[in-house]
Amino acid sequence: FFFLMIRRPPRSTQSRSSAASDVYKRQLYDQPAHFSYITRVTGQEKINYIGHSQGTTQMFAALADREATVVRHIDKFIALAPVVHMKFITNDFMNIGAISRIGFLAQALNMNEFAAFKPKGAVFSAKVCKAFPKVCEAQQWALTDADPSNINLDRWPVFKAHQPAGTSRQCLMHYSQLINDPNGTFKKYDFGEQENLLQYGQANPPVYDLSKITEKVYLVAGTVDRIADIQDIERLHSEIKSSQLRKFYQGHESMIMGNNPDHIPYILEVLSK
Prior knowledge:
Layout: E1 2-6, H1 16-19, H2 23-42, E2 47-52, H3 54-64, H4 68-73, E3 74-80, H5 92-100, H6 102-108, E4 113-114, H7 119-131, H8 133-143, H9 156-160, E5 167-168, H10 169-180, H11 193-200, E6 216-222, H12 230-239, E7 243-248, H13 254-257, H14 264-272
Parallel strand pairs: 1-2, 2-3, 3-6, 6-7
Antiparallel strand pairs: 4-5
Helix pairs in contact: 2-3, 5-10, 6-10, 7-8
């Protein structure tokens, strides 16, 4: 049995609790809930987890913190375009967003969710991509894939009909903190000294100790990924002794929406072991 979790958890709401959702809280609550539900419904004790992008971030956080339910039930963890260290990110939008702290701007404007899914907007975006595929290709070049020609543009209107999935304000701010960290350190959300003392019992946010992860981890990296840079993934690989790293000519989006999914046979091989 395997469990595929791509990108983010289910679309958030405009509630305050949604705004306060970050990677730490999702690894603390969401991941154990997912695993508990699957084992209860299927009767399977061991689960193979495939994550992409943020879906990998919260799993690495859960494993580094040795979350009991996840550790007990996980078998293999396949991380597509894993996002942990972000020192070498080349996504212009995210870099600009991190520098200007757009999360704080969202807070000032009382925006709980960033890039929320809007059905009408998704339909419009899908039509634009169908009529002007080069526009969408240029967009992905700027944001996710250094070579967007590898993205399956024929299916792009279908993909766009379900995007963006949106993320919470605090999650956006958390990634901003990770990008701004000069050493690219993977650590928990920084609330500020006073709140950190209440949340963590220390003035600074704790660093995730990735060396504690002993589970079977398979890192699937894209060599033209503008978010999960290959240098950051190689660092991650060096920190997790039980990990294996394979590189493919994929970007961040083509990893799950590509027209040449040459990494799929490798994933199937891993799952068959």
